[in-house]
Amino acid sequence: MYTIKRAAELTGVAVTTLRAWESRYGIVSPNRTESGYRLYDDTALRTIALMSSLVQQGWSPRQAADETQRRMEVSTGVPSPFSSEHSSTFTSSSHELNQLDSSDPDDSEFIDAVARIDTDRVSQMLDDHFSRGSFEVVVDDWLMPTLERVGQAWAAGELSVAAEHAASYAVGRRLAAAYEAAANRDDGPRVLVGLPPDVRHELGLLGFAVAARRAGLSTAYVGADLPASDWKDALGAHNAVCAVLSVPRREDLANLTSVVSVIRDAHPRLTVAVGGRYQDQAPRFCRRLGHLIGPAARDLADQLRLDAGLTRGQTTSPS
Q: Which domain covers residue 166, as residue numbers?
């Protein structure tokens, strides 16, 4: 049996990623010591190594998890106890995020840097993590769960408002740089990305906007707190085929619904996609994006190309 640190060393998969894969996709179910520490057997290590290989080949984490479970079932003849639990959705709930261990040294160091308002160290850690893997994997497997813990620490009174704001600014600046660095495909389906009026929690949505550009969509990011009437005008100005919004808090649902209603009246054939924690309570005709930006961006790009009769590499204008 192997500790999580040893399992990470043997498989080359970071400890935080191992925990995220277990919580979100259920690919392994390690034993626990009496004190609660994870212990992995040889089968678990083979499972992790297989999923890691698939991710490195370009599979999304959700797809890689499903394929890993399928291959392991074939090789062992034993169905995975997690298959039915995780196969219906690739989203991660707030409950699952709360269950992720907060004892990882790297996460603790990040939160300590946030508490000290050490923005240089926060920026260094962001750069370090984004150098380790693809943008989408780092955001889904490390950044968003870590920001969840920052929010929990702030709610518990362990972080000041100033510290939380400084961290949000540092992360937002890093995501904005990634957005500008991503090539915007003028020939891809045109998408407008932003938030309803009075909604300002935009880090997750900005991360999605980066992933959307990287997936080949022609995106215009209009940011937070956009009035409903401006949504209607901006969609027309951008000649968009899709609007992407987010509903991070329950109290944001009313404003989201009002914007969606305006969009629907002005552009009845336009796709409206919604992310965020309370996306399942959005109007029924909205497309739910889930909570992982990588799969969400790729799935939306594929669907919009399909709707337009395109395949990857084709343009939206006649040749």
A: 105-180
Same domain, 142 and 231: no
Mean pLDDT by 10 residues, the chain (319 residues): 84 80 80 80 85 78 81 57 31 35 60 93 91 87 88 85 92 94 85 93 94 94 92 91 93 94 92 92 91 90 84 42
3-state secondary structure 229-255: HHHHHHHHHHCCCEEEEECCCHHHHHH
- Please answer whether residues 57 and 22 qualify as being in contact, where contact means their C-beta atoms are separated by less than 8 angstroms: no
Q: Among candidates 236, 156, 219, which has minimal Cα distance to 184?
A: 219
Alpha-carbon span 242 to 264, nearest angstrom:
11
Check residue 304 and give its pLDDT.
93
Same domain? 83 vs 20? yes
Q: Using DSSP, state whether 64 is helix, strand or coil.
A: helix
171 and 230 share one domain: no
| Residues 219-249: b if buried by 16+ CB within 10 A, e if exposed | bbbbebebebebbbebbeebebbbbbbbbbe
- Give the per-residue pLDDT at 61: 78
Q: Which amino acid is at 216?
A: G
Domain boundary residue among 152, 180, 208? 180
- Of 194, 181, 268, whose CA–CA distance to 224 is shortest? 194
Is residue 31 a contact partner of residue 38, using CB atoms and an 8 Å limit? yes
Specify if 319 maps to a domain. no
**Which pLDDT does position 291 carry in this prediction?**
85
Of 109, 81, 79, nearest to 22 by C-alpha is 81
**Domain shared by 81 and 118, yes or no:** no
Please report the pLDDT score of residue 118 as a whole number: 94
Phi, psi of 291 (to 5 degrees): -120, 10
With residue 156 as reference, give the H or E element that holds it.
none
